[in-house]
């Protein structure tokens, strides 16, 4: 494939004022021809690399332009291949849902795609959804590097109640009256079932009250619960080391025969399940509300917890909701019992 520099320059002068796109392609081919002549790189392929670096386009694109021009001149270089696929334009109900999901809940393209497909039978690619979000200036490009997590072991829990986590989040400015607020958050590992309540302080007594409500509302038996080493959960580090005494919450767990696991101090990542739930609430919920007082806040929190369990689809559950997952789990358990009885 040999490009003629004289013909290329002649075509460039002819089309430079007619088409900027065509002029750029001809400029690239002129540079390619000059590079080959100067460095004698026709057979090595490094000529494409040098030009691609200069004009910030791919080597494959330059090769395609070169073949097209050599085959049919400017006409072939200017031709555009028409795709048989119709261009999908997101509009109407699909556009409304994407905008609502992003502005209300700050969801990413993958979560939006799952809810559109399963709940509304609207099938769109991740690329299309991302492009729509970018065109509406709903995606911020961040150059911040994600920190590497030193805890890379994947923990799989198949049965609800076997492994649960509790944590407390301080929200100093959530209430209109500016009173201190602490949100207790409970998450089950297997089903991602959640329960949240707000208190004006974090104490062992409030922790006990919260956990009593969790036991009443949870659709499964709780066998174990994991917490950090805060004073609201344990007296291990504020009592005598040789004879550590238990606080009222720890005694309650002993009474209910529920195992209490404490994560090592400073290893916050080990409580990642409930920490991720906190972050989801920050992104999807807290920025949209301004309750007048604690009573109103707890009503809103209860509705939000119900919505998270009934409507929010979660990737670890195969994009099922928590209640869908629990229903399937119950049916499997019943079938297993029937098979054992029959045998």
Would you write up a description of this structure?
This protein has 343 residues and is an alpha/beta fold. It has helices spanning 5-15, 20-39, 46-55, 59-78, 92-105, 109-120, 126-135, 204-217, 248-255, 272-284, 294-310, 322-342; strands at residues 164-170, 182-188, 194-199, 224-227, 259-262. Strands 3-2-1-4-5 form a five-stranded mixed sheet, sandwiched between helices. The longest helix has 21 residues, at 322-342. It is elongated and about 90 Å long. It starts with a helix and ends with a helix. The relative contact order is 0.08.
Key features of this structure:
343 residues; alpha/beta; five-stranded mixed β-sheet; 12 helices; 8% strand; elongated
Quick structural gist:
The chain has about 350 residues and is α/β, with parallel strands linked by helices. The protein has 12 helices and 5 strands.
């Amino acid at each position: 494939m040999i490009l003629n520099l004289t013909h290329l320059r002649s075509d460039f002068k002819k089309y430079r004022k007619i088409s900027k796109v065509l002029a750029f392609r001809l400029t690239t081919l002129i540079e390619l021809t000059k590079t080959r002549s100067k460095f004698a790189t026709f057979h090595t392929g490094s000529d494409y690399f040098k030009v691609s670096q200069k004009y910030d386009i791919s080597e494959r694109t330059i090769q395609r332009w070169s073949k097209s021009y050599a085959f049919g001149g400017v006409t072939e270089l200017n031709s555009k291949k028409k795709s048989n696929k119709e261009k999908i334009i997101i509009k109407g109900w699909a556009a409304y849902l994407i905008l609502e999901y992003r502005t209300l809940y700050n969801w990413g393209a993958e979560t939006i795609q799952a809810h559109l497909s399963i709940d509304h039978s609207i099938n769109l690619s991740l690329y299309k959804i991302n492009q729509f979000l970018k065109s509406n200036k709903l995606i911020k490009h961040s150059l911040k590097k994600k920190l590497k997590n030193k805890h890379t072991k994947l923990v799989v829990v198949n049965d609800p109640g076997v492994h649960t986590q509790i944590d407390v989040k301080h929200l100093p400015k959530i209430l209109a009256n500016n009173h201190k607020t602490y949100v207790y958050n409970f998450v089950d590992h297997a089903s991602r079932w959640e329960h949240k309540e707000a208190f004006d302080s974090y104490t062992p007594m409030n922790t006990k009250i919260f956990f009593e409500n969790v036991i009443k509302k949870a659709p499964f038996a709780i066998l174990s619960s994991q917490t950090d080493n805060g004073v609201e959960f344990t007296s291990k580090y504020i009592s005598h080391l040789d004879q550590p005494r238990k606080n009222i919450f720890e005694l309650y767990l002993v009474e209910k025969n529920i195992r209490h696991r404490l994560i090592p101090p400073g290893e916050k990542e080990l409580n990642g399940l409930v920490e991720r739930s906190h972050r989801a609430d920050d992104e999807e919920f807290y920025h949209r509300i301004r309750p007048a007082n604690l009573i109103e806040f707890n009503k809103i929190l209860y509705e939000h917890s119900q919505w998270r369990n009934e409507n929010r689809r979660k990737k670890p559950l195969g994009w099922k909701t928590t209640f869908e997952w629990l229903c399937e789990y119950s049916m499997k358990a019943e079938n297993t019992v029937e098979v054992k009885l029959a045998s």
